[in-house]
Amino acid sequence: MVANAWLPKDNGYFSKHANPKSYGNTIINNHRSFKSRRNIPSFEIRGVNLGSMFIVEPWMASTEWANMGCGSALSEFDCVAALGQAQANSAWATHWSTWITQADIQEMTSYGLNTIRIPVGYWIFEDLVYTDSEHFPQGGLAYLEQVCGWATAAGMYIIIDLHGAPGAQVAQQPFTGQYASTAGFYVDYQYQRAYWFLGNMTELIFNGQHPNYAGVGMLEIVNEPIPNDSLISDYYPNALAAIRAVEAQYNVPSANQLSIQMMDARWGAGNPNADIPDLTLAAYDDHRYVKYEASPPTTQAGYLQTSCSDQLGGNWPLVVGEWSISPATANQNDPDLANSAANMQFYTDWWSAQVQAYEMQDGWLFWSWKTDLGDYRWDYQLAARVGVVPSDVQDAYAFDCGPYRR
């Protein structure tokens, strides 16, 4: 079946704007109508990731990490094991109550952002944790509900992303919440834990007892997996079935069902559609870090040519769920690419070029809203405050990509 039900430009809970270039930074705070059309934002997704809120990544939050007492620990798992459960719970409670606040949500909407993607780990449901062998902070679920409540009240669309899967979907990556020596996710008993996570999250959204989740319109069933046959043949179809089963239990009408997101085929973990019998409300995610690609010339003109000419293609509907304006690591301190006042106009132009490219799809989510790097190339809040990112997202279209398009 063709995946044609999830159309971000269709009528939905925001006001209708057929052309995303026409509406500037206006946001209609009509979150109550999620009840009638939860799964379809009415215009391009323009948003940010709440990186390091529920899975702290030391590389982007090193000061926060040190203040939490985590020192040289490589991941949340390692820090909690070192601190002990009680001390870790206290440290994370302080972190959760300060890293993202209601003021952050208000600031996002003031810039014309309409969506947040919230990366979470399976351990946010504490019943899923093997307490004799796994070490994760406790108490995060209440803060997730709080953040969702703020975003829902502000009229924002919310994507909840299973960023840290049971057993870790990638080895030696702190974004999974653990620095696992091998990727242990791709076995049945770990899949079962992930289905439980997805089913339980769906239940919170629809059981009528948690109105703060009214703004959640999409679940991403695993972030950045690696190639594995069972991911395509077993996990994807069963994950979708787990979500739909809970929706059926609560008699959720099709107009209010969740969109279910997978990494697209371009990501390289296989064709997500291969074994799914019903692709209604399927959506796709691609992460476009030009920084890590070998082909673009590492010059200002090279990056602008790459992004102005970007044709993503692949599965549809597609949201670019992670991207930044950070150049290649080896060149990021070159005079014409450094994080400096002299290069701010280039970074405004490159941000604009990427926004234009990704809005030819169904939108984008910058990584991340905030860091403590002091580098606006990874930090949307800082970039907006210093003027690299304009206060009106619509100003991305003031930049003319024409001379750079190949």
Largest sheet: 8 strands, parallel
Question: Structural class of the helices, strands and pairings?
Answer: alpha/beta
| Percent helix | 25-40%
H and E string: EHHHHEHEHEHEEHEHEH
Description of the molecule:
With 406 residues, the protein is α/β, with parallel strands linked by helices. It is 30% helix and 11% strand. Strands 7-6-5-4-3-2-1-8 form an 8-stranded parallel sheet, covered by helices on one side. α7 (229-249) links the parallel β4 (216-220) and β5. α8 (300-308) packs parallel to α9 (344-358). It is globular, with a radius of gyration of 20 Å.
Quick recap of the structure?
The chain has 406 residues and is an alpha/beta fold. 30% of the residues lie in helices and 11% in strands. It has an 8-stranded parallel β-sheet, with helices on one face.
For this entry, give a set of tags.
406 residues; alpha/beta; eight-stranded parallel sheet
Strand-helix topology:
Blueprint: E1 45-49, H1 62-67, H2 76-83, H3 85-99, H4 102-110, E2 115-121, H5 140-153, E3 157-164, H6 188-206, E4 216-220, H7 229-249, E5 259-263, E6 282-287, H8 300-308, E7 318-322, H9 344-358, E8 363-366, H10 380-386
Parallel strand pairs: 1-2, 1-8, 2-3, 3-4, 4-5, 5-6, 6-7
Helix pairs in contact: 2-3, 6-7, 8-9
